[in-house]
Amino acid sequence: MPLITLLTDFGTKDPYVGVMKGVMLSINKEARLVDITHE
Length: 39
Hints:
By secondary structure, this protein is of the alpha+beta class. It has one helix at 16-27; strands at 3-7, 32-37.
């Protein structure tokens, strides 16, 4: 199971983080996504 950590400057008010996570999980459904920060 791959571990993917997310460190972005997208903020939390827009849908970009959710879209990015959806794409990652559509590529590998077993991936574990960990949010570090989006600020």
